Amino acid sequence: MNGHWCHWQNDALLLKIHLHPGAKINEVSGLLDMRLRIRVKSPPVDGKANKELITMLARDFGTKKTQVRIVGGKLGRDKLVEVRLPVTFPQWFIDLNCKENSG
Length: 103
Prior knowledge:
The chain is 18% helix and 35% strand. It has helices at 48-60, 91-96; strands at 6-9, 12-20, 27-32, 35-39, 68-72, 78-84.
């Protein structure tokens, strides 16, 4: 994977994410050190923040929760998330302009 925050691998979109649990609202708040910064309301306890992240990304990309999985960083804030077969692309994704060949 290159230095950018997103990358396609066959039919899967890989996202480098910096997760901020315990936030006031669920939101994508831009980029931080070439990672997608996402805030979730759930605390980082018993996998609650990870579950909320998966639910949020599945909704945003119009896919099932089973198509979204954390493939790296399950216990930390920096994560690598795979979204298989995304159906739609949220406005934040378009605005942040995923260019897998930059860097």
